Amino acid sequence: MLVAERRKRVLDLVSNRGVAALEDLAREIKVSQSTLRRDLNYWHQQGVLKRTHGGAIYLGDNSGLPALEDRIGRQTEEKRAIAQAAATRIRDGDAILLDGGTTTLEVARLLVGRPLQIVTNSLPIANLFASDRETDLVVLGGYVYPKTGVALGPMTVKAMEDIHVRQAILS
Question: Between the N and C ends of the chain, which has fewer C-beta atoms within 10 Å?
Answer without folding.
Answer: N
